[in-house]
Amino acid sequence: MSDWKPIIGLEIHAELLTQSKMFSACPVVDSVEAAPNTAVDPVSLGLPGTLPVINQQAIEFGLMVGLALHCDIPPVNQFARKNYFYPDLPKGYQISQYERPLAVNGWLDIEVTPENGDAYTKRIRIRRAHLEEDTGKLTHIGGGSSLVDYNRAGVPLLEIVTEPDINSAAEAEAFARTLRAILVYLGVNNGDMSKGVLRVEPNISVMHKDDTEFRTRTEIKNLNSIRNLYRATLVEIDRQIKLWTSGDSVKQATLGWDEARQRVVIQRYKERADEYRYFPEPDLPIVEISREWVEAVRARLPELPDAKRQRFIETFGLSDYDARQLVAEQAIAHYYEAVLAAGANPKSAANWILGGLFTLMNEQGAEREAIEHTHISAAQFAELVKLVDAGTLNKGTAQTVLAEMWATGSDPAQIVAAKGLAQVSDESAIREAITTVLADNARMVQDYLSGKDKLFGALMGQVMKAMGGKANAQVVTELLRQQLDARR
């Protein structure tokens, strides 16, 4: 395996969050939730005599993405007809861009954390980003029959194509996560891969250490999650290496991913670009992108993940790791900043979001981006953090309160008062509990005094248990050491 190197390029298709479709005033709807064929018009149905009109908002959304990916914006771009039969695109061709795309020659830096090895940063080049229209959606019902829904036909679609700079499944996953975050921060895509509004398709080949040029590649279609992108890429890399090493060869093909069986399946053998017979779209004008227009769009760009991460580090004193975790999803970053606006300490708030809240969400099976829909408001969470910082709650009790907040939506102060959970810092009460615990665990005390230092934690646990988990751990530690040292 060490003699082989994966060569991977990604194609990312992102539906744009415009109100209307790419070439008509037909409204864009949720293609999963909306009733089939309720958002269609003569243009998206490809009726004879209809003419397309370019959606300016889609152009500007595409420019925002191009600028965020450090692309050059050519002064002229042009739409083209792609002559390929899509059964769910009724006019028999797709309007896309070919020779004159919207954005070219960009790059994106990714942070890669492989399963084995140290994290590293890598720059992935962006070949192009171009606009096109999405297809409809087929539902296969068995017996050789299919149903077609044209709601999605004509929705603005931005295709982003990387150079083949990616050399592992981990790098492909990191790129997809980083790009998805940028698209969501820009407000041009909601990032919901389960609904197909964002689709990542890897082109994969492998290269032997003695090769001087690339070998045949395949493309995996219709991956509905970033995790599946990672798994499918690993499987296809392994499949290709086994084919080459056994004396067989890889045929250029489009593949599907069988999630249930964790394997790729060949769908069709791949066409060449010249078989699409691209030619300039005669019904649309050339689009001229002035420098003034580009700069006006640039001025409207929001704070992107890398800039926000750097601000969190410099302004709030967070570690690079904590800042990266907080900005990975826009919803998490917004929640964190709302908690700070409610008066919580920045480092304490970060610790409790990344530790306490994320632990609870994992236990409940909740996705992290769902943080904005929890029962716990930012103001309530800030109140909990302040109770811990003030010494009213210790860490263990605070986690109990947090779980109750998650379940009921109640304020932390109300929960603490109702259940008597306030932290005990009274030294006389703690000394009394320690004395009782040491008397009841004489053998453990003797073993500790004989050099078994690890037993201190066990004795500490017994004292906390005796105090109902509400004792101030710092005070317990100090007083327990005093009493043990007095017995030496």
**What's the main sheet like?**
8 strands, mixed
- For this structure, the quaternary state is single chain
Number of discrete helical segments: 15
Order of helices and strands: EHEEEEEEEEHEEHEEEEHHHHHHHHHHHH
Q: Tell me the span between the first and last alpha carbons.
A: 60 Å
The total strand number stands at 15
Helix content: 25-40%
What do the pLDDT scores average to? 91
- In the residues, how many domains can be counted? 3
Shape: elongated
Order of strands across the main sheet: 5-6-9-1-10-11-12-13
- Cα radius of gyration in angstroms: 29 Å
Structural class by helix and strand composition: alpha+beta
Estimate the strand proportion: 15-25%
Query: Uncertain segments of ≥5 residues (pLDDT<50)?
Result: none
Describe the structure.
This protein has 488 residues and is of the alpha+beta class. The chain has 15 helices and 15 strands. It has an eight-stranded mixed β-sheet. Strand 12 (253-258) and strand 13 form a beta hairpin. The longest helix is centred in the middle third of the chain and has 20 residues, at 226-245.
